[in-house]
Amino acid sequence: MSYQSSFACLVLSLIPCVALGENWGHWRGPAGNGSSLDAKPPVEWSATKNVKWKAPIPGRGSGSPVVWGDKVFVVSAVAEDGGRGFDGERLSKLAFRIYCYDRETGKVVWEKTATESTPHQGTHSTNGFASASPCTDGKHVYAHFGSRGLYCYTMDGELVWKRDDFGKMDTRNDFGEGSSPTLVDDKILVPWDHEGPSALFALNRLTGETIWKTERDEPTNWSTPFVVEHDGGKQVVMNGQNCIRGYDLETGDELWRCAGKAQRPVTSAVAVGDLAIVLSGFRGNYGGAFKLGGRGDLKGTEHVAWSWDKNTPDIASPLLSGTRLYFHKAKSAALSCVDPLTGKAHYTSSKIPGLSTLYASPVAGGGHVYITGRSGTTVVIKDNEKLEVVASNSLDEGVDATPALVDDQLFIRGESHLFCIAAKK
Question: Cα–Cα distance between 264 and 219 in angstroms, integer?
Fold first, then answer.
């Protein structure tokens, strides 16, 4: 069997945790790694070219769109005065909403206000109050507003349950909240790292009841839990400022940890074979591939398969596509591509032309990688071991959210609109 064939089998072995098919039910896609096995969206578009529809999104948010069947979901925080909810001094009352759009037409099928409240603290100028992405399994859709609660709806918009009893997060430097929940089996995982008592929760996805709660000695963290199957069980891999950790999905017990060298983690993990890969890059550069069979403190042991200490990502999560791992810096737009099994570089710190600041995570499908900047420009490159730009595409508004790829469509959540990009037939 060839290296590529073996690698493909390893990637496919990770996917049963999340539903497959023509859906994008989580902000990182079907396998949680940013890639789609069957999507083939366009590589060229503009504010008018190949735009199937453009729908307004009231309020502000950077939670990514999720897609299931004929429905597209986004969340938003809508201020009474039409502003962003925080002007640097004064906090406004906000309506925290979830919107369901018709995938064919872009029309709003339903919208629900989960709750209305005035946030207890401000947020970073580039962040809002609806930064966590929703998630869905095709039966229910979940909207997470952090301190404002987690809300479970039917696909038709009927409230099933809510949990608004977690308390209030105290985020570092009032930077705001943003970690997204993760659906797996009968559970929904809710990260809760802040400057107060931190924890990871596993809730019953049908009732919202707590299955387990694991305390974490971690400060504010904006990453999302990643679930990987290994040796007949499943592990939850979480980034952290103090340590990167693996937990048993069924019990919440910590299995392994490894201390890092970067602050205020935002990026989420990916995995291939028996390796979990986690990178962080704010005020330090650190990342590595950790063997899922390791236990206890892995630092300095054979269970760290490889490590990386230059230009690791500080905002966007890495992309795993086939035999390649992509990651980039937010402000320098420096892209690296490495072999995820060995850490060997195909290329490193290559400037992406036309981009300067990037918050959205890269995504891949149809043999291409899509890299989106805050300006609203998406650079499309070939998904291979050499940096080769295919196209550069701009919309008329900024983009912070990670796009979603489904079939021949690309869904981009901008500052004010949701775009469906599709080649005209």
Answer: 8
